[in-house]
Structures are given as structure tokens and as C-alpha cells.
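1st attempt posting a full record on here, be nice pls
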Amino acid sequence: MVLSKIISGGIPDGSVILISGEAGTGKTILASSIAQEELERGKKVMFISFNETEDEFFENMKKVGLDLEKPGFLYYDLFSVGRGIVENQLNYIYTEIYKVKPDLIVIDSLTSILTSFSRDHVRSFLNTSISRFVKMLNSKAILISERPFGREGFGHGIEEFVVDGVISLELVYEREHYRRVMRILKMRGRRIEKPSYEFEITDSGLIVFEIPELDASEFVSNEKLTTGIPRLDELTSGGFYRGSITVVVGNTGSGKTTFGLHFCHANAMLGRRAVFVTFEESRNAILRAMENYGMDYEPVKDRLLIYDFVPEAKSPISYFVEISRLISRYRPDVMVIDSLSSLQQHMNPTELAKMMRYLQIVSKENGTAVLATLNRWVDLSSLSSFPATNLSTLADNMIVLSTFIEGGELKRKLVILKQRASPHSVRVHEYSLGEGGVVIHD
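the predicted structure (as C-alpha cells):
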């Protein structure tokens, strides 16, 4: 449900709701998503459009996963007719509203109506035909209004006389990306837990990004999954718990990606489902790295999925939504995200922590053990200086990798900084990268 998750009880019966926003913010898609939910509940929907022909509307909605060509959905195309005919059509719609008695009326859009009629005419239409009908039959109505770019306010100065709720859709430009934001400015008769939410429009519909409450006790697992590195399994008392979040922190060249490859490949070899998400290399580069470290992809290709994403192509929230969809759809036993640093460049620390909290909940609900890498140099001789961040608090396990020069050679060391609810080594261990990948030395 699009709005019932964020508005307690959803849109109240007997309400007229205004959806306002600039061009391209998703107003029609939001209204259509609500319409589809009403259809699924066996309700009748009357959709009055001044912006698209019927064929264009159905085709555009199918592109975002909405199938509205169903019994109970009535589409009125006023886009293709002239002003004089529109006046006759409005009279016809008055009659249709009272004859059909729809449970939901959508008007797309008031902006288009105002180009053809006077404000007094439109005000009369809203008051006498829409608002009166909605109150009389305890149904619902959605009015869509386009807000000019840069203009403050949410309507044209007449909607406030009839609306019971206002939803504003916005495109917020930040850190070289546009974020879609939904603001619930008003909703009479409903309690609003939080007035602002980010959302995305995908080929599966409109997804509102909200972090649900989690009863952690419902998702606790005592099963441990191998790290893919035998000695690391010993140091962690058997690996990582199913549903846990592990962050591997280290500087460039410390082998973070290789740790992730071991984790995915070894579990896939055991018959488990694995997903490797990379933001830093191509899929072919990951396959080449696996081959170089002696990890044969052929026997696990049906169980180990590799996705390469370009962090600059979309907003960070888009990728977190995509990752959560991968988890929910594929239900992998293990997942690697390489790396958080690529997303961190486009988010502030609070946003990253919020996304990780969301990922934590999704992974626990599906029993997926997630390993994420983070590029950061850490001095193992002074771990007290390691910054305490929201990310380190959210992680169940944290492994710190470090490189240094000794005797003219590059050396690598690691320490298990944290492993929640499990005994683990507290020593610093030297390790190397070779043909077989990571080898930890005592």
C-alpha cells in the first residue's frame, strides 16, 4: 500500500485530497497507484484526464507496473476535445458521477481545467460536484495540481476551500542527484507519524522509502555462514550469523573486495544463494578477479549473481531500494556490497546510517548475511582513534584491514574489531593475498 504505510488508516473516506508538485514529480503515478489499490479492494474508480488520451495513459502506467485496464476503472478522456465540447463533457461527467457513484474520483489536472475555464467556474465545479458528492456518499476524490518551477505554495488559491488533505511531491537537488520527496502537509482525520518521505518510481510502481519497526527477536538466527576463509572462520567462531551485517574497513589495496568474493563464492559452492553488488568495478572485472584467486565461477553461476552499478547514474536511495528488492525477490543467503564508499560520496553520514538501518531490517527479515566494504585507512596501533560512527554502531561485525611497509615489502594486517553476540579473536593477525586469495597467518 502506497499511503497506508505512512498515513495511519490511509486516506479517510469522505475526503478530497490535493496532490501538488512540479512537472515530473510523479503526481499522476501516485494518484494511479492509489486508484489501483482501490480497484484491488473491489472499488469503482472514475479517472478524469485533461492531459492524456486513454491509450497513452494505460501505456504509460504499464511502464511503471500499474495495470488499470480492469473492470471498475472508468477513464474519461477530455484531453482530445475542444473547450466548447469540454463544457458539454463536464455536464456529462456531473451526470456520470451521480449515476456511477464511484468510490474514488481522480481529476488530472486542475491546472488544465483552469486554462479553459474561469476560477469561479472551477470553484463551483469543485464545490457543487466533487466535494458535495464525496461528502454525501462517503467516497474519495484526488485533485492533481501542477506547481510551476520555483513557485511556493501548493495550489491555485481555490483548492484550499474544498480539500481535506494536501500531499506535495518535490524534486530536491542535492550532491549532484535529484531526490524525490513526498510531504504530507495536511490530512484531516488522520495521524501523521512523519510528514516527509523519500520515494522512487520504478518499473514495479511507486516505492515509498520508510523504515519499519523491527522486533529483532523474531529474526534472530543461530546459524553461522562461512566467511569463505578457513582461518577467519576459526577466528570468528564459525563465521557470520545469518541476518547479520558485516563491515570490512580498509584502505586501498588491503583486499576488501577479495574478502567479499570469498564470502560469496564459498557459500555458493555450499549450495547457498549469493549476490555480489559492485559500485567500483565492472562485472567482467569481478569475474577476472575470481579467476585470478582460483574461484571457479562456472559451477556457481546459477547461484551467484553479480550486479555492477554506476553510483553516479542514480540517487543513492535508488540503489538501496534496488538492493532491498534483490533481497526480497531472490532471498539470497549472503550478499556483498562493494563498496559503501562509492555511495557515501553522495550522502551525508545521517542518510547513510538511515539507509544501512533499512538494509539491516530487510536482511534480518530475509535471513541474509550482508558484507559491505568501506574504504578508510585505519592505524591498527591506535584503534582508540577509530571514529565511532552510526555505521559502526549498526554493524553486527566489523573487520579492520591495514597495509604497511616493512623491510621494503608491503604487509597486511587485520583485527576483528567487533562481533556481536559471538566470541572472536582480539589479536592482530597478518595476512597475505596470493593465487588462492586471502591467507591469514598466525
